Amino acid sequence: MNQVSRRTLLAGAAGVAVVGLTPGAARAATEGWWPTPGYTVGNSGFSQHETSILLSTVGRVTEKASLRAGSTDIGAPVLAQGRIFAADQRGIFAFSESTGEELWAYAYPTPPNVGSVVRLAFEDGVLIAGWDNIPGAPGGSYVSLVTLNTATGAKIAEAAPVNYGAIQDITADRGHVAVTLWSGQRGFFTEVLRQSDLGKVWEDVSHSTAAPVVSNGRVLLRSARQDRSQVRDLVTGAVVATVDGPEYAALAADDAGTRFYAAWGAGVYIVDASTGAATAIASNIAARHVTVTPTRAYTAWSNGVSHGVSAFDVTAARPVFWTRSFPAAPLKPIIAGGVLYVTVPGDRVHVLNPVDGTSIATPAFAGVTAAPVITNGRIYLTDGSRIAVYGL
User: Fold this and answer.
1) 208-232 confidence digits (pLDDT tens)
2) Mapping DSSP to helix (H, G, I), strand (E, B) and coil, where does residue 54 land?
3) What would the pLDDT profile of 85-102 be if each residue is shown by its tens digit?
4) Domains observed in the chain
5) Hey, which of 154, 220, 260, 297 has its CA 20 to 30 A from 243?
6) Interatomic CA distance for residues 208 and 182, integer angstroms
7) Residues β-bridged to residue 223
8) Which of 177, 128, 132 is nearest to 148 (CA)?
9) 85 close to 76: Cβ distance less than 8 angstroms
């Protein structure tokens, strides 16, 4: 299909109320916003607010539109305030959620590296974007970070370039932006900036996040060099708790903001966001992603030879409910409208019943390169060259 222009993507979307976001799970809100790839700042991957595409209806979706056809390295969109925000090698774009009309475009001062995906996040009327680029220094990869006005696309602030770095994650919460980077000189490290001007607030050159996860204003950092983990206040950088030994990689947080779900070694743990105390919920599993509901954790795992998704009870340490194997390492599972979506690169998006892991018949959903976005009766899928929009 050709790039959409002035056509209806979502009847009635213009009537959705636009209100201020509050910390925690409410940031995604009942408006159907999808402000960050993991849905909430806790990277829970769990949306209770989809009411149209359900287990009983997902098999009937068809492609309705295509955004940015012919793109290179386009990533999954984020949605807020009735707008779809997406980025590719040519720029950052905003589309009307209701009509598909392109509203504005932002041109990079220096373009992203070929093969890299621009990271996007939304908070309080501001779009945060970060990307790797090489402006000419021999062997030197630089990170660019900007904030844009979501109404106009005008640049609000730009951070000083981080030399010899590669961006890993962006998390926006409570007026601050946490960025995890990697460099050959430093290894993994985390910087926290003010959202208003992208000025640096604090930095930890020894510890870093493993995924874009905030739990009630706190982040869980790990240090392979020092064999320890730290819970730190996102805003102040103050150390809340230190755990020596384990290097907990926080992959998600519950919507209540009380605990992290983290991987360490061959296990999955619940880590208290106040004390750092940990409880094992799974063993002998090489977790790469975790998606959390009030009662279950869905863990995407891979040991390099076998790959799959397993469902666990998070109310107590119990055996696995079910496991499904896949031909390659799955991306982050997403649950929306009571449907579980598992993206397997080089294969397809597998649509499952989250209760027992059985497959649901749907369109092919092949060649997808990022976890899907499901909101307001639409499924957004990217294969790197465009964003396909599915609906009933």
Assistant:
1) 999 999 999 999 999 867 788 999 9
2) coil
3) 999 999 999 999 999 999
4) 13-391 (2.130.10.10)
5) 297
6) 9
7) 228
8) 128
9) no
